[in-house]
């Protein structure tokens, strides 16, 4: 049974000259709130950073792209393959997956056959940029022609955002783990933190260029969670759409100290993981500081 204490996370990360999370239904433009101009990133996108890092480190990960005879496996086929290989009965598949696959243990999974909905004890919310961000349409010449017989190279097109600074909230609820008999240990939470931070650093592509800047972890003595943990102020030196670099902002932790004072009987400790480039204001001596 899980004895790992409930905790909340607030991650500050940025994306530079890239597409933080493309919307396939809208020409793969960066997801954006049409009213506020803030960019958005789904929980799936953020969890993928951790999953990619776990895969690279040799951890068992259920939710990943697996090809079989030139075709991508469905969720049902992926589970069937695992069941057959490990000789697991339908009634035992849920426990087998939560015991052996780190992403299922923490994030949960929806399995189509046998039908299982595993509610993971660690949930990640949708992210939003803390400012209105620009979106630019880019074009360029590709190295190859679009088809045989063409005399000119084809033209590539893409949408990018010059810069966006995001906040991401996540929560680990020990009561959810206990209710589902998921045995989460402290090392699993440590693995998540490491995979999330390192995954953001290591995952690079023509559309992805992000960096973790600050991670706040609040560990509770009980399960009296806050529910949003939005006690960090971002102070910008320029107007929203002029923001281009982490050097142009300061991160103020004063509200986090006030929150700690209000709930210090419920809080075991607060850990701040920070990137060297971040300008921090009002650092509380009671917080434990670590470097990203």
TrEMBL record:
SUPFAM superfamilies: LuxS/MPP-like metallohydrolase. Signal peptide: none annotated. Pfam families: Cas_Cas7. InterPro entries: Cas7_Csh2/Csh2, CRISPR-assoc_prot_Cas7/Csh2, Metalloenz_LuxS/M16. This is Type I-B CRISPR-associated protein Cas7/Csh2. It comes from Intestinibacter bartlettii. The gene is cas7b.
């Amino acid at each position: 049974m899980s004895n790992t204490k409930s905790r909340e996370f607030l991650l500050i990360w940025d994306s530079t000259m890239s597409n933080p999370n493309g919307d396939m239904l809208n020409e793969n433009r960066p997801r954006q709130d049409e009213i506020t101009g803030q960019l958005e990133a789904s929980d799936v996108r953020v969890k993928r950073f951790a999953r990619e890092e776990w895969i690279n480190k040799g951890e068992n990960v259920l939710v990943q792209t697996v090809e079989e005879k030139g075709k991508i496996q469905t969720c049902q086929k992926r589970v069937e393959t695992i069941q057959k290989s490990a000789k697991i009965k339908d009634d035992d598949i849920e426990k087998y997956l939560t015991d052996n696959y780190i992403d299922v243990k923490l994030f949960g999974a929806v399995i189509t056959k046998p039908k299982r909905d595993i509610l993971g004890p660690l949930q990640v919310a949708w992210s939003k940029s803390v400012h209105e961000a620009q979106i630019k349409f880019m074009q360029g010449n590709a190295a190859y022609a679009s088809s045989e017989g063409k005399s000119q190279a084809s033209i590539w097109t893409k949408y990018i955002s010059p810069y966006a600074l995001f906040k991401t909230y996540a929560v680990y609820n020990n009561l959810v783990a206990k209710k589902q008999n998921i045995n989460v240990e402290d090392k699993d939470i440590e693995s998540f933190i490491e995979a999330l931070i390192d995954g953001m650093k290591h995952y690079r592509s023509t559309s992805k260029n992000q960096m973790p800047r600050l991670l706040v972890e609040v560990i509770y003595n009980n399960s009296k969670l806050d529910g949003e943990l939005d006690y960090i102020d971002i102070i910008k030196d320029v107007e929203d759409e002029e923001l281009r670099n982490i050097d142009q902002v300061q991160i103020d932790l004063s509200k986090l100290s006030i929150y700690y004072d209000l709930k210090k009987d419920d809080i075991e400790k607060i850990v701040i993981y920070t990137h060297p480039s971040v300008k921090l204001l009002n650092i509380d001596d009671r917080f434990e500081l670590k470097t990203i």
